[in-house]
Amino acid sequence: MAKVQIGDSLYTKNKIFPDYKAEPGQKALVQIHGMFTEASVTLIALLTATRLLRKGFETSILLYGPCGVLAASATKGYPRVGDEFYPGHLAHTQRLQQFMKEGGKVYLCQFGLGAVGFREEDLLEGVVAFDPLDTLDLALEHYKAGAFIMGTWM
């Protein structure tokens, strides 16, 4: 058996489903409720939201819970704001910024914000904070529009 080299493919291409794209006007909502210890699930949800956006869906992210608040924080970094202390330290923030740059909308529950001691002024530009009662209504708005809704709950 030959030794594996960097760049070698480990698997045969086995994509079995069509590469679906959104029809004009279709929406998607990705709900991300995360805790500090489950950050990888939040990162995958952020990457999925960006993929939905790139497939043509009008995509929104709902952040609630401590990990969502930290992802949307504009005050992270070390030793200065914006400095990445180690590779991946600011991955959530960078993914959110890219998502919004590409036209995605980000909403954040104020309860989560207050629960971890942040203010609206501490959020990334473009993140919209709202009353906790709007969490359900945002989901219902997307449901009524026939949107694809993906929820992550950890």
Describe this structure in words.
With 154 residues, the chain is of the alpha/beta class. 32% of the residues lie in helices and 19% in strands. The protein has helices spanning 39-54, 66-71, 91-101, 110-115, 134-144, and strands at 27-33, 58-64, 105-109, 127-130, 148-153. It has a 5-stranded parallel sheet, with helices on both faces. Helix 1 packs parallel to helix 3. The model has no long low-confidence stretch (mean pLDDT 92).
CATH superfamily, called what? DsrEFH-like
Shape: globular
Give the second-level CATH assignment, the architecture: 3-Layer(aba) Sandwich
Q: What is the CATH fold-level name?
A: Hypothetical Protein Ychn, Chain: A
> What class, by secondary structure content?
alpha/beta
Main β sheet profile: 5 strands, parallel
- Could you name the ranges where pLDDT drops below 50 across 5 or more consecutive residues? none
Write down the CATH class: Alpha Beta
Order of strands, main sheet, comes to 4-3-2-1-5
Number of DSSP strands?
Answer: 5
Rounded average pLDDT? 92
Q: List the secondary-structure elements in sequence, H or E.
A: EHEHHEHEHE
Helix content: 25-40%
Strand content: 15-25%
Distance between the termini: 42 Å
Gyration radius, in Å = 17 Å
